[in-house]
User: What shape does this take?
Amino acid sequence: MTERLDLFSTPILMASPPNAEDLNVRLLESISAHRAEHPGIDRSNIGGWHSTTDMAFWGGEPAQTLAAFAVKEVSAHMVDVAKAGKRQFNWGIEMWANVNAPGDANQLHCHPAAYWSGVYYPDPGGAEIDGNGGELLLEDPRYPLAYMTVPELLFRNADGEPVYSQFALRPVAGRIVLFPSWLRHSVRPHEGDRERVSIAINLILTGAKAEKGEA
Assistant: This one.
């Protein structure tokens, strides 16, 4: 009998903060006000408006609530195995808003220097509907896999399903998707009936110290 091990899985977390509908309203108000005063910057965006990365500051209390929720979620999926004992890590927060009109997209990229990254959807803009594009596209981190196999000849996963080199996640209002920052990702062109608004987050480890009484 063949024994199979499926190793080195990539954690993808999906969760919704409490009172997400109210939080979405307040986040959208903050984004709209900031967008009216700032032209935005160019990063991974192909078209659309990309804010500066200090939304944790200009976004006020709703942005800080979202950041705190993201930290809480990822912390539950980490463990410190240092022999010196459990350490207390500090998190630096980068956060920015993306507003994509029909036809706008985000090119393939990753987030160097961060530990976890995420995207939250206060308003998917119709991208939640099949056929309207705007999906978050996650690329298999075993990058050569897509180029070292015969086209359309794929591995099966543990459930017997084919293993594709990309996985698309459709946006859901009030949901955050969190993933390791080294995971390459992009956004398909948005074809919804209104602007697609998302908030990206980088969680950056800024230091650690041992708890009192530990080395």
